[in-house]
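Slide 14.
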Amino acid sequence: MKALCRKSLLRRAFILLLVCMICFTACTSEGEQDPEKEKEEKTGIKIGMSVDSFIIERWRRDCDVFVSKVKEYDSNADVLVQNANGDIETQKSQIRYLIEKKVDVLVIVCIDSESLNDVCYEAKTAGIPIIAYDRLIKNSNVDLYISFDNEKVGTLMGEALIEEGLPNRRVLMLSGPTEDNNVLMVEKGFKDVMKQHGIMIKDCVHAAGWRAEESASYVSQHLTELSDVDAIMCGNDNIATTTIRTLAEARMAGKIKIVGQDADLEACQRIVEGTQVMTVYKPVEKLAQAAAEYAIQLAENKTLTGVNDTIFDGTYNVPYICLDPIAVTKDNIDETVIDSGFHLREDVYMNVPDED
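Slide 15: predicted structure.
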């Protein structure tokens, strides 16, 4: 009899233990999720960004604004930024690293428009969409190319010089590398204006890797030939900076009119001082905000909204967002780069004495 009671008690205890285990498991699955699973659910989208080089002032600004805008759209998003320091092989390696990290979308400021189609193919094979930021990546069928109207950039440069007057009707072009597709587009716009007004382009020099010192070296070696040159079109404001410094050392500063692009702080200071005619301002906030918005759309596999244009990349017609650049001169610098918050007034006018 005692044995039967003992067996009955053991059976009841086992059933009670089994019920408790079932209840505990149910509570764990419904109320206390597995930590790893919970971590995965809280993780936001992951964006990989590969940038040419932070030596150029504007790329630092573009990157900072882009990351900030992404965080505004999705506070849980993670942006992995890679700086290639102007080396194409480094950029390829970094893009492959981002592919291995399984980012949801790639945003690329390319160094060489012709040399990334292999890694772009690897990214697309891995199901990762690509945004070509500011510079077109050729023959790669990217999911979106977003930039400013680069041909118009060259047009604005040319028109600014025409308005200043070119008595000798001769200009020099100090451009960036031809590997950058934007360079060719800017040159086209500039050359068209020069042709329309019968202006001779004395020479067109391309600085490899946007190294401004190469342009400065050319200027220092050709000072005699520059005696009849009215103006120099500089591919960006960094090249304009080294060019003006070289001319100043030769006591030729102010004798040759200079234009550039990117609205770097030093260039804006020179404009109000009168040593640079103009710069082309490309509102970074607009470009970065649009890129951030479209990056999130692509990461979430949504259809891109408001993209109506395409551009031929050499093989494919790819979706294209084109923004307008702005010519900045002494007459409108306050309502453009200063009122927009791009630069502070006290910084721009730092070297200009108060009129009061």
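Speaker note: DSSP finds 13 helices and 13 strands in the chain.
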